[in-house]
Structure formats: C-alpha cells, structure tokens
Input
Amino acid sequence: MSKQDTPSAHIAAQYEDVASTVIMCGDPLRAKFIAEKYLENPVLYNDIRGMLGFTGYYKGKRVSVQGHGMGIPSIGIYSYELFNFYDVERIIRVGTAGALSEDMKIGDMLFAQAACTDSDYGHQYGFPARFAPIADFGLLEAAVRVARENGYPFQVGNIYSADVFYDESNRQMKWGKFGVKAVEMESSGLYVNAAASGKKALTICTISDQLIHRKYASTEERRSSFTNMMNVALEIA
Ligand code: HPA
Output
C-alpha cells in the first residue's frame, strides 16, 4: 500500500503533494492559520469534509499541516492514510489538553511520552495482552532540547486519550494518581498507527484547562502557549 492508494478516501492530495513530516491539529481552521502564519508558499492539498491540509516550507524544510478532527476514530483515519498511503514518516500533533495533575499549570506544554486510553482502537490487532503506545524517542528528545533552549515551561509524561469529553462519572481524575498528566482524545490512536506502520509520532499539548482546580486558559494564555508549542513543532519537523 502506498502511492497507488492516493488520492485516498479522505485526502484529495496527489502522493507528491504531502511532505514527509505532517503537523496535525484537531481544528482544520487552526491548520489553515498555522499554514498561513508559519509556512512559506503554503498550498492547499485537501478540503474533503473541510479537513484542510496544506504543504509549504519552514526555514527551507518542506512541511505539511493538516486537521485531524476530534477523537481517536478521526485521527485514526487521517494518520492511517498519511502513514500508509502517502508514506509520511513523522506526524507531530499539536493540541490542547486538560490537566489531571497538580503540577501542570495553564499554558504549560506537555510532551506525551506515552498514552493511556479507554478506547478499543488497538483491539483490531488482536494483541495477546495490552499494548503500551509511546512517542518516538527521537522526536521527544528533539522537542525537549528546543523547549530547554528557548526556556519554555514543559513537562514530559503520560497522557490519557479519552473516548469521551463529557466524563459524567468523573472517573478520569483517577489517572492523575498514577502520574498521568493530562487528558485529550487522540494520542493513543496516533501512536498505535505510528507503531503499526513503523513510523514516528509525537503529541505536544498545551494545558487549556486545569481540571483539578477548574481553571481555564485566558485568551492571552492560549495565544502565548500556542506560539511556544508551534515553535517546538516546527523546529523538530
Ligand atoms: N477532555 C478531553 N480533551 C480535552 C480536554 C478535556 O478536558 N481539554 C482539552 N482537550
């Protein structure tokens, strides 16, 4: 599987239109914003279902940026097609997450070293036991280096990729006791797809909600932490 499966069911691009590194984010309009603000000569390669994807250049490097929607099934589709049909080597997800531990403050960056989940996405592989999805160490190490060089606040740790946003039983707070730093809804599926295709992935999140203290990022906090996260993602791309 690769070139002959392109354009794929959900991505209208020709095989050559997509760079070997793709930065992904949930909101397709955020992908457009990133492409227009940070990339030189961005070219739109997909608008099926409004899930915009662009390819351009950052400091001479060819980079794509593409929306992935919300939740594991959605990022599962897009990352599967990118890894397996477009032969993408690296996906760096940039997103937001809710803090599950006291030591994560609004605006902090989290590099998701591993991802717990309540999703059954990995079930398709029929593992004899549970698989532990992890980030690519090279991408993680590079992200840590860039964050340190720039003095950005960050942590490295476990994330929880939930299947539900509205957690009525509030059971997700238990993960914090096991050192899991934050909750979002995609990394586990992304890391499983990377592992299954022998490719690389990393999620970088900024904390938009402190769920223990029920605090939410201000517009200015969202803006400055987004800038830090983008600098890291683009430098390691
Ligand atoms: N839950 C799930 N995903 C999220 C959250 C949350 O509280 N905040 C940002 N992404």
